[in-house]
Specification:
heterodimer; A: alpha/beta; Rossmann fold; six-stranded mixed beta sheet; 10 helices; B: Aldehyde Dehydrogenase, Chain A, domain 1; Aldehyde Dehydrogenase, Chain A, domain 2; 2 domains; seven-stranded mixed beta sheet; five-stranded parallel beta sheet; 42% helix
Chain lengths: 379, 435
């Protein structure tokens, strides 16, 4: 049996965690990022045989690597086909796959939840709890114990441990349905106590809440000053889709939280670090669609031309390719299908996926087929 | 949508009804043939507009126009009508039906009184014209909403029809009985509501969501003819000839694979080496064809999907899954040799998987998953006997057309489109008799 840490993972993970602990306020200079990225790449090259062959086929080795931008990225769809994390795992996160069949769900093995926690907390603290102290975290995401494969649930578990006053909770019933009455009750209690809360949930969960208010099943509230909202994720067919600006107006109208206190988190199962589009309560900010997401210092994003995979000209849209050093245990460089435009300071404006924008023929798509299959599967 | 359009089409119905099918074929075929005449301004303008309109290359535009317009000519339209109806005169008047035990007289009418609304949600150039021709052949007015990317051909076809209308009354009747409509997509627009409420019947080409939404919104009494998105594959046997790869490349590259008749996946009955040889040949053929008929401009979302596919194929190869990748420059074409017998719908843009299968019986696994979506199965390299068994097998699974791979991309006018007669699906039978 391999002795824990014998492959060098623990030592490198500890170095990374220490660097992450310095927080997100001070950017890393190019050399600092590059040096860490090389160490991460070298570890992955040495310990992940599949990735090593993939890189060799691309002509890239740790010795030949010119800069972090040359680390071969793995496409997100590869997470659906392969286990990309070698060695013992503490968890496996899976993409939700709500509109696709189960076979198309991506999976991301996590070797160290401590490193995941180290990547999550400073970023969360800087964007959601910049004023420090403890809040009450009311979550519209299942608890991690009920959803062990959800990276979001786990992240909010870290947040609960670090920032909750002990009286928050998750308002998702075992069936997976939102517990709207329980959530409404917790909101009312916070209002009565004048205690600021942090409401976290996916965009579709907030739509369900807003629909509940509109239909009179629950009542709107005016949360105490300093209350904030973190919304994340898309709609994925689980509620009616609403433009983000409308969503934010709805949140303001039903929870009394103004858009300047609403922060979007852009994360993905395939990455263990997250992007945020601003700091809660930091004053007036652009309209939701105009806000830029920024990575923590240990993450960098390139905007690539989808045809050539070369960098686009500044200001041009392209697909996002991230290098996340928190992905030490799997693959750090990940090519997504998300589109965006680079902005200053390493951030980007998300444009979303351009599905269906092109002229479509009458040929069936994978999406059509998987939707049909999942519709036929017993729930 | 122009005010009073539906009313105008309704008013044109009696005059159209008074024309004979042979005359309708003659006029429509005359207009259609103009798209095959190099010197005809209609064809010249079609070739000018199609690359921009359809997002395809100039050479692809020429290929598509020739492939589609060949079926808009008099001999092919005559063959269509005569294949569809035992006695085509049934489109013009009551005829005897001696096959009925006590005898009877029958007559084919358009599916429902009132204009037929043809909604072409796809963008395969030429589909809209084929659809409107079918509607006019059965003698009913047509309101056509062409697909995005397929506007030039129907506009020019109607222009051609209008120019004929000055010369003879049948052409006048036809030109008066067809119109193009457009409304800003999205369900619920006033134009769309008006068209759906006023249509006698509806023909729709589109994806599952489009069809389901339409079904939900149409009055239950309005007949709906559905052409949903479909998927085609090829099956290659041990007797395949050298030109099979070239035939396959043509089927993959036609319409840049947007057509439901274009193969997504090629199954090779044989071992891994057979499949690899075919994949190599197909790659070479796609590269060669790409020089003659380049793909249209790459759309960002499709290019992104192709990059995901390629990167994943490389990772799977690195993982020892026996996957091999061949690719053209940028995202011009992609061939993935994939030993896992799972049907892989293509992300299009000349992207195809090749998989070895031990036997024809092994087709059941991958094809069963496509079930009702399965359409054309292109075949090569089988004896007649094997071909018959293969056809029986794949049609039981859901396929509706089994043809040589070289004929996949351009089905003839009289093909059984998704398993139904293209004109017979547009008519309602009237019967008069003793019982």
């Amino acid at each position: 049996m391999t002795e824990a840490g014998a492959d060098g993972f623990e030592a490198l993970a500890a170095d990374l965690a220490q660097a992450f602990a310095a927080g997100v306020a001070t950017p890393w200079d190019d050399d600092a990022f590059d040096a860490f990225a090389r160490r991460v790449f070298a570890w992955q090259f040495a310990h992940n045989p599949t990735y090593r062959r993939f890189c060799r086929d691309r002509g890239v080795t740790p010795d030949s690597l010119q800069a972090w931008t040359g680390i071969p990225p793995v496409p997100t769809s590869a997470f659906k086909h392969l286990d990309l994390a070698p060695g013992p795992l503490e968890a496996t996160f899976r993409t939700s796959g709500t509109t696709r069949g189960a076979e198309s769900r991506g999976r991301h093995g996590v070797r160290s939840l401590a490193l995941y926690r180290a990547a999550c907390l400073p970023n969360l603290a800087a964007h959601l709890v910049p004023d420090g102290g403890r809040l009450r975290l009311l979550s519209l995401v299942p608890p991690a114990a009920a959803a062990p494969e959800s990276s979001l649930a786990r992240m909010l578990e870290f947040a609960r441990e670090a920032f909750d006053d002990g009286r928050g909770g998750s308002f998702v019933a075992p069936s997976g349905e939102l517990d709207l009455p329980g959530f409404a009750h917790a909101l009312e209690r916070a209002v009565d106590e004048g205690y600021p809360v942090w409401v976290a949930g996916t965009a579709f969960a907030f739509v369900h809440w807003m629909d509940g208010v509109a239909e009179g099943r629950v009542g709107r509230v005016e949360l105490p000053d300093g209350s904030r909202v973190m919304e994340t994720g898309g709609f994925k067919g689980r509620s009616r889709e609403v433009p983000r600006a409308v969503l934010y107006r709805g949140i303001e109208a039903t929870l009394g939280v103004s858009p300047s206190w609403i922060v979007n988190e852009y994360g993905m199962t395939e990455l263990l670090s997250q992007f945020y589009d601003g700091v809660a309560g930091a004053g007036p900010r652009p309209e939701p669609g105009e806000r830029a997401h920024r990575p923590p210092p240990w993450m960098r994003t390139r905007v690539l031309d989808p045809v050539t995979l070369g960098p686009v000209d500044p200001g041009e849209p392209g697909i996002l390719c991230h290098v996340d050093l928190a992905n030490l245990g799997s693959v750090a460089a990940v090519l997504t299908e998300d589109r965006g435009v680079a902005v200053e300071d390493g951030g980007f404006r998300l444009l979303g996926r351009a599905e269906g924008a092109e002229p479509r023929g009458c040929s069936l798509t994978l999406e059509d087929l998987l939707s049909a299959r999942s519709a036929a599967e017993p729930v | 949508m122009e005010a009073g359009l539906l009313e105008r089409l309704r008013a044109a119905a009696p005059s159209l009804r008074a024309t004979r099918w042979r005359d309708r074929v003659r006029v429509l075929g005359r207009v259609g043939a103009r798209f095959l005449d190099d010197d005809d301004p209609l064809r010249v303008r079609a070739l000018e507009r199609l690359p921009h309109d359809g997002g395809i290359s100039t050479a692809q535009a020429r290929w598509v126009v020739e492939g589609m317009a060949r079926d808009w000519t008099v001999p092919r339209l005559e063959a269509l009508v005569e294949t569809e109806f035992h006695d085509p005169d049934v489109l013009d008047h009551w005829v005897d039906d001696p096959r009925a035990p006590e005898g009877r007289r029958i007559r084919a009418f358009p599916l429902a009184p009132g204009p037929a609304l043809h909604i072409c949600a796809g963008s395969v150039p030429g589909v809209s014209v084929t659809s409107l021709i079918r509607g006019l052949l059965v003698g009913g007015p047509v309101l056509l909403k062409p697909g995005a990317g397929d506007r030039a051909l129907p506009e020019l076809f109607l222009e051609g029809l209008e120019s004929e209308a000055g010369m003879e009354t049948v052409a006048r009747s036809l030109a008066d009985a067809v119109a193009l409509a457009d409304w800003a997509g999205g369900s619920g627009s006033a134009d769309e509501e008006e068209a759906l409420a006023g249509a006698g019947s509806v023909v729709v080409y589109g994806g599952s969501d489009t069809v389901a939404e339409l079904r939900r919104r149409l009055p239950p009494s309005t007949p709906l003819v559905e052409y949903g998105h479909r998927l085609s594959v090829a099956v290659v046997g041990p007797g395949a000839r050298e030109d099979t790869a070239a035939d396959l490349a043509g089927a993959v590259a036609a319409f840049d694979q947007r057509g439901c008749v274009c193969p997504h996946h090629v199954f090779v009955v044989g071992d891994a080496t057979d499949a690899r040889l075919l994949a190599e040949g197909l790659s070479e053929a796609l590269e060669g064809l790409g020089r003659e008929v380049p793909p249209g401009p790459a759309d960002p979302s499709r290019a992104s999907a192709i990059q995901q596919l390629r990167g994943t194929a490389r990772m799977r190869r690195a993982a020892g899954e026996g996957v091999h990748l061949w690719e053209g420059s940028e995202v011009s074409w992609t061939v993935v040799l994939d030993p896992s017998a799972e049907l892989r719908p293509s992300c299009l843009g000349r992207t195809v998987h090749v998989t070895p299968l031990e036997s024809l019986e092994a087709l059941d696994g991958p094809l069963a998953s496509a079930g009702p979506f399965l359409q054309t199965v292109g075949v090569a390299g089988f004896t007649d006997e094997e071909g018959e068994a293969l056809a029986e097998r794949v049609c039981r699974l859901g396929a509706t057309r089994v043809v040589p791979v070289g004929r996949m991309a351009f089905p003839p006018a009289w093909w059984l489109h998704d398993g139904g007669g293209p004109l017979r699906r547009l008519v309602r039978w009237g019967a008069r008799g003793p019982a």
